[in-house]
Design goal:
337 residues, alpha/beta, 13 helices, single chain, five-stranded mixed sheet, five-stranded parallel sheet
Length: 337
């Protein structure tokens, strides 16, 4: 999540984008609504409850029926809580739960929602994160809008809880979270004495670098909950990592420091991005080069054939991704051991 949302917080073109989208929206409105944004008549004079969020306090309808989510994390957590939006930003980060998105209209790209598409859906509630603040006033004219803070991916549980409050699904969230911890307890029991003996390394191969994921990254928090240890090179909290590396959840290393990627087990993935095919090809090429590197071949996990290529949900941001990681822990650390 840090990869996604920090990127957009730093975009210097946000206001230009907002102005362009606003002008486009006004043209649409002028044609169909006499030059003013339409008030959603379905939510006028309906009962609502106040929800505090990053931009202020929004009165969310008690019985909303047409939810729109502005990013993959709010979409995923809504699905996990049993609510399917009528519209959502559906990106490559949603690929692992595509089967649950049948009938959901795609309203644009991460950071670039299509306001005309949102208008056409006629939502009665819009949900997203605070990097969308430049467009908040526009969203709010369409429907009540809530934008939560999401500092980095390690805060996913707090975000899940906040979203459950906004969606009035606190009881469901408690059950979902109980199931998450129940699965982890089952994992710990099946691991037995091996649990304390295994150090798990998490590595991501970018087109131009190799990164190690740290304690408070999304996947790092799941590994902590599973009772698994990490190599010393990856035992940095978010605050420590921010001070040392300028990044709360990951650190880059060069080929000369490949030994820092070692562990009893290595989970690794490439920088997949459907929008940059060339970048994917470069990352795949770098992975192959890494495998042929003698320093890499000398790693304990490599020599013991304990290196596992995993999908993008390891850098996820919600409950569905967390459970997918648990699936991998069972698959590779129990079923294949």
């Amino acid at each position: 999540m840090n990869d996604i949302y920090t990127k957009f917080k730093r975009l210097t073109s946000w206001w230009g984008l907002a102005i362009a989208m606003f002008c486009s929206l006004l043209l649409t409105v002028a044609c169909h609504h006499g030059g003013s944004l339409p008030v959603n008549e379905q939510i006028t004079n309906t009962a609502c409850r106040d929800v505090k969020h990053a931009v202020g306090i929004t009165c969310v309808p008690d019985k909303f029926e047409r939810l729109v989510t502005l990013d993959s994390a709010s979409l995923e957590n809504a699905i996990a809580l049993g609510i399917q939006p009528v519209g959502a930003v559906i990106s490559e980060f949603s690929s692992y739960f595509q089967d649950q998105l049948i009938g959901v209209k795609n309203i644009g790209k991460i950071g670039e929602p299509n306001l005309e598409s949102i208008l056409g859906i006629k939502p009665d509630f819009i949900l997203g994160f605070d990097y969308q603040q430049p467009l908040y006033s526009l969203f709010s004219q369409i429907a009540p809008t809530v934008l939560f803070e999401f500092p980095h991916s390690g805060k996913w549980k707090e975000v899940f809880n906040n979203i459950s409050v906004a969606l009035n699904k606190q009881q469901t969230a408690q059950e979902v979270m109980k199931n998450y911890y129940r699965r982890l307890e089952d994992f710990k029991q099946q691991m037995g004495n091996n649990l304390s003996k295994i150090k798990v390394s998490v590595v991501r191969v970018y087109p131009d670098k190799i990164n190690l994921y740290l304690l408070d990254s999304f996947c790092g928090t799941v590994l902590q909950d599973a009772g698994l240890s990490r190599p010393e090179s990856q035992k940095f909290t978010a605050s420590e990592a921010e001070k040392l590396f300028g990044n709360s959840i990951q650190v880059s290393i060069g080929n000369e420091l490949i030994e820092k990627a070692d562990g009893d087990v290595i989970f690794i993935w490439i920088n997949e991005d459907n929008s940059t095919k060339k970048g994917n090809q470069t990352a795949q090429k770098n992975l192959e080069q890494l495998k042929s590197n003698q320093l890499w071949q000398n790693l304990k996990a490599v020599q013991e054939n304990k290196v596992y290529l995993v999908p993008r949900y390891w850098i996820g941001s919600g409950m569905l991704a967390a459970n997918a990681i648990i699936d991998d822990l069972f698959k590779y650390l129990i079923n294949e051991s």
